[in-house]
Design a protein that fits this description.
alpha+beta, 8-stranded antiparallel β-sheet, 4-stranded antiparallel β-sheet, 1 helix
């Protein structure tokens, strides 16, 4: 059940988490955006292309499976069954699931906006209901874009060198 025009309250609700292109499905035991959410997440294999921040801080536990958390600076954190993950609102990442993974997540109250990055669109600012409210032009996002471009250039060069 979902109440409110943009899913402000969810009780025993099954649905996509992270938008239509996400590989994550969630079963919300309870979700009250102004207070907290408790959900069981199913990560299907792979990842969507968008790096993103969050509207909330959260603590999660990998119940089964393995997740690789890719950061825009090229670092990767590995999370396996039994591991606790703390994600802050400002964490800018994308998560790759090795096979299907299950995660229990406890999320704090939602901020009004968060950001998402794709190479096609750059950084966009989102609000409730995944409504776009603008493009981010802050110095931090511009620096992240520059680092991300440098990282992918290094990765591409390495892949070509390995093929030779």
């Amino acid at each position: 059940m979902q109440l409110g025009s943009k899913g402000q309250i969810k009780l025993l609700h099954w649905g996509k988490d992270g938008g239509p292109n996400s590989k994550v499905w969630g079963f919300w035991l309870v979700g009250i955006k102004s207070l907290f959410s408790l959900a069981l997440l199913r990560f299907d294999p792979g990842s969507r292309e968008a790096y993103h921040s969050h509207a909330f801080n959260c603590v999660s536990w990998v119940l089964r499976g393995e997740l690789h958390e890719h950061h825009m600076d090229g670092t990767v954190d590995f999370h396996c069954s039994g591991k606790r993950i703390t994600t802050k609102r400002e964490t800018f990442h994308k998560v790759y699931s090795v096979g299907r993974s299950w995660v229990l997540t406890l999320r704090g109250p939602w901020a009004k906006t968060w950001r998402e990055y794709t190479s096609e669109r750059g950084v966009v600012v989102l609000t409730h209901g995944r409504e776009e409210v603008g493009e981010c032009q802050c110095a931090e996002c511009r620096a992240r874009l520059r680092r991300e471009g440098e990282y992918w250039e290094r990765l591409t060069n390495l892949q070509h060198a390995l093929k030779e």
